[in-house]
Amino acid sequence: MTDRLPPAPASPALELTALTKSYRNGPTALDDISLKIEQGSFCVVLGSSGSGKSTLLKCITGLVTPCRGEIRVKGRPMTRRNLRTIGMVHQDFGLSERLTSAQNVMAGAAAITPLWRILLQAYPLPVQRKACQLLARVGLTEAHANRRVKALSGGQKQRVGIARALITDPSLILADEPVASLDPRTSAEIMQLLKDAARERGAAVLCSLHQIDLARAYADRIIGLQGGHIIFDGPPAQLDRAALSAIFKAEDSGPHLKFAVA
Ligand SMILES: Nc1ncnc2c1ncn2[C@@H]1O[C@H](COP(=O)(O)OP(=O)(O)OP(=O)(O)O)[C@@H](O)[C@H]1O
């Protein structure tokens, strides 16, 4: 008889422990946040304006330095070097308007491309091929691929943004209000695309949203944030009226300011 050990459980795609951020002369935007996101899951951080959603995502990518806490991606402490294991989708698309769609997608591989190749727009052939495949995957044609981004619609721009986020085969995709500037029909298409494209690749998604209907329709799990605290964590079916009113209760407006009048 062979005594085989059971396989070690896979590390979570993302693990946050006691993450805390207080801005200087500002509020405590995140207060002792701990959570694990399993590989392949589609998680929505739902909260009103000022609840701490952007700060949470910015701490993970290193744009904001937390005051305390630990961030692990696939079991490894988050550093600049493993930033390439994360794909980012931005609210304002974060694309270079004067470059073509294909050049923008390839730019997502900048961290693994020699500088001279980036400056000359001479990306290696495998990167070029992959950019074309990804643009096709997000529903764009060859004509779109060769068009400057400034000549695309908002929905088309976000398709380019998703393709760019996928080019390094990330294990985790962070999407910060990815449909905030899009109409309802385009928003639904983009959310579905993000979910499907991530699932095909086994990537986990952490997506911040303030739209309840979109969170309900696309999330496997909803994390409700209010005043920098997690006040709900569960599947969409459990997001009842009480949970929603707790998540969207009016934020504390802070001390009243007095302005000196000259
Ligand atoms: N650089 C900063 N300096 C000081 N306070 C900040 C800074 N950035 C954010 N804040 C404050 O931290 C809190 C959380 O902000 P954050 O942007 O993370 O919220 P959010 O949920 O993403 O809001 P929105 O949906 O409006 O983008 C808010 O009270 C905000 O005013």
Question: What's the rounded overall pLDDT mean?
Answer: 90
- The SS-based structural class is alpha/beta
Number of strand elements: 10
Name the CATH architecture: 3-Layer(aba) Sandwich
Number of domains: 1
Uncertain runs are 252-262
The number of helical segments is 9
**Integer-rounded radius of gyration:** 20 Å
| Share of residues in helices | 25-40%
Give the CA-based shape: globular
Within the CATH hierarchy, at the fold level, what is the topology?
Rossmann fold
Give the terminus-to-terminus CA distance.
89 Å
CATH class division: Alpha Beta
Largest beta sheet, briefly?
A: 6 strands, mixed
What does this structure look like?
By secondary structure, the chain is of the alpha/beta class. The protein has one domain (14-247): P-loop containing nucleotide triphosphate hydrolases (Rossmann fold, 3-Layer(aba) Sandwich), CATH 3.40.50. 32% of the residues lie in helices and 23% in strands. Helix 2 packs across helix 4, helix 2 packs parallel to helix 6 and helix 4 crosses helix 6. The longest helix has 18 residues, at 184-201. The chain is globular and about 50 Å long. Adenosine-5'-triphosphate is lined by residues 23, 26-27, 29, 47, 49-55, 210.
Report a brief summary of the structure.
This protein has helices at residues 53-61, 101-107, 115-119, 125-137, 142-145, 154-166, 184-201, 212-218, 241-247, and strands spanning 14-22, 28-37, 42-46, 68-73, 76-77, 86-89, 172-176, 204-209, 221-226, 229-234.
